[in-house]
Amino acid sequence: MKSFSFLLFNNSSISYYAGSLFVQQSGKYSPIRLKHTKGKITKKLKEVLNLKQLIMVIYVSSIFMLCPIYSKAATTPCSMVLEPIDKKLTNAKGSALIYKVQLRPPSFARTNISILGVHLPEPSSYGNYDSYEGFAFIPNEISWRFRLYPSPEEDSPTWAGRFDEITAKMKNVEVQVRLSNLKTEKLGPSVLSGKMKYCK
Asked: How many CB atoms lie within 10 A of CB 101?
């Protein structure tokens, strides 16, 4: 014997059982008189079911309109947080900004990477280093390095710098703040790092 039920609004429901249709509201069941033939759901019941399907379609559609599926690709300008490699450096953080710049029109625009690092340890505390550099690279393709300059604060200055001449597509790019020796131009290990899948 076929039976089914589904919820309506205001905590009510509609049920079909043994050829009869019932509406349940506030704990009470009320029969609805409908004609049926050989177990087939009547036309009126089909209309109710079609209405429920329509409501479900509207509900699902509204979810996708209000909560769109986001792409893994970011649109320029893009930014990322640079996290410390050493988790003990709880105050050390950085950020990187990636966007297009038009410095010499009518030549084509290039990509800029700007880096800022705050509360970084004194470079000399890591050994024979006296500065920080920005370092960005696309694995197995290309890399860029540029000097970061300290702000005037004597106690824990902010380090910042930029590079404007990038022509490559920014795909699978990693950005780092690394130790540096200005005299020997030796590049040391990374202190902050962040990755971006794609900035288009």
From this structure: 14
DSSP conformational letter for 182: T
And the tokens for 189?
Answer: 């290990």
Q: What are the backbone dihedrals phi and psi of residue 87, each rounded to the nearest 5 degrees, phi first?
A: -65, -10
Scan for tokens 């059982």, then name that residue.
17
What are the backbone angles phi and psi of residue 43, rounded to the nearest 5°? -60, -40
> Residue 87 half-sphere exposure, CB side, CA atoms within 13 Å?
0
E strand or H helix at 194, and its extent?
strand 186-199
pLDDT at residue 68 in the model = 40
Q: Is 148 exposed, middle or buried (0-12, 13-18, 19+ CB in 10 A)?
A: buried
Averaged pLDDT of the chain: 79
pTM of the model: 0.62
